[in-house]
């Protein structure tokens, strides 16, 4: 379970927030979410799940159709963005093209009428924080994407806001730069004691950077918790499939005994699994097994024989694509080295703890289809 | 330049015809505009070529007589008033019309642009009848208002065009940085659309400065504008002073448009 925040810890509270742009479809359904002071909270979800809408309501660009947002305990319904004292980094940077880098960073200070000498000092410090001291006189157009992103960061931080929002700030950068910037942002978060609400659809980015992650799906938070909890104890098949990698197999629950259940897969294979939430005997279920939880072994709670279709070498590990008897495909992640070769039959084993069974419903079927079509 | 290095006889012929065609178009469509220029420095009171001799006397008549000077002054005052109003209103309208949240944008745009489409006589008659009710006929305010109506579509169009390239997310960025709407407009949006605003203003000024029909309906003898003075001059006693006035007007328009264009380009380069 996510750690429940006490009243005073929450810098931001979404209370029953709902948003519809057109009056009938809901972009955000019923959002109840607390962002604690000093926390790095990530909104993670697929495209169109309502992450940007949520962030824009917090920034004040959009108004909730229903519900309330509290900032430091105060409702912000009547507060325009320019009075919220929130720093924000946009996906496309949104730097002012006709201003120099220094003028861009100075903008939040000059509109707050900070004295010139002090503003200069703070701009210098902010540019030093993002290591762009030498670029103050350039125009944004004369900088690389990563540099522009750092200017945007400096502009969001220069007036020392308590809360910083970032909407896919690294989306436009290449992988190497993105990983580098992830570390920089994380360091700034720690150094400056910021509260950060971060939006991404990249689950590995969310796992690396966040204290807590809110997983969005169809305008709802389906699970909220620290990365390791989301990874090891997903509450729905959607989260299981979206965070990290998972083998998802449909089946039916046969028996439930305490913390264990037996599941019959479509071809009749019986599995020992751990039920998640309410799973009743006879119910349709989806079983999730992480690729790294499967071993090449003859013994375990669950053992099955599979044909290794291909072996993919990935440096630090190798990935086996295996065909199981029932026509399903299992991805297995094993340490590098001799172990399996394509074309041979292997025994695969995994424990019941690593085999999660979720009650299936309509949205699960959609998830399964997505998985299989991907 | 138009010919490829291996032009055939056919190519040469086609280019020859093209050049001849362009010359005809220029001669019949553009050249007449410049006819008054040489006539305005003719020493004799004839509208015929060749010129009898060179003289500034018609310019002296235009710039020296009270009637002409007054007309020029009226035109300048009216044009400045109409330009300020048209630029302000037109810019605001364009900003509103490019906001995707504004309902019925196309309809409103059509209404605002209609003075460009409706025959100007109709605008003039309408303005005269309507303004008379409010005591605005035969006043400078009335003329300025009516000129504003025909001048602002140019501003709406030019500002609208420069707004099409403006990223509205920048206004959100300015707002979350702490800028109030007016500050955000002045410091973020205006610099970006300034070229459009300036060229719109130049068009508005020239439109009002050249306008005759509305002025004829709305202005009394006390508010005679330069085009009116030229028009009555033409009807009453054909004096080459009109050619001097025409040359002056044309020069002013050309200078204005060039200045606006320069400013616009400077704005874009920044
Ligand atoms: N301005 C808008 N007008 C109408 N509908 C909108 C608007 N903005 C978003 N939506 C709709 O609201 C839903 C949520 O969109 P939102 O932008 O919040 O998703 P997102 O999670 O940020 O997705 P992405 O990862 O693609 O940015 C989508 O179905 C989208 O089509
Ligand atoms: Mg988004």
SSE map:
The complex is a heterodimer of chains A (374) and B (270).
Chain A: E1 10-19, E2 28-36, E3 40-44, H1 51-59, E4 66-71, E5 74-75, E6 86-89, H2 101-111, H3 116-129, H4 145-157, E7 163-167, H5 175-192, E8 195-200, H6 203-209, E9 212-217, E10 220-225, H7 227-232, H8 237-242, E11 247-257, E12 260-265, E13 270-276, E14 284-289, E15 295-296, E16 302-313, E17 318-324, E18 329-334, E19 345-350, E20 355-359, H9 362-373
Parallel strand pairs in A: 3-8, 3-9, 6-7, 7-8, 13-20
Antiparallel strand pairs in A: 1-2, 1-4, 4-5, 9-10, 11-12, 11-14, 12-13, 14-20, 15-19, 16-17, 16-19, 17-18
Helix pairs in contact in A: 2-3, 2-4, 3-4
Chain B: H1 9-34, H2 36-39, H3 57-64, H4 66-97, H5 105-117, H6 120-133, H7 140-164, H8 169-176, H9 181-210, H10 213-218, H11 226-236, H12 241-269
The complex binds adenosine-5'-triphosphate and magnesium ion.
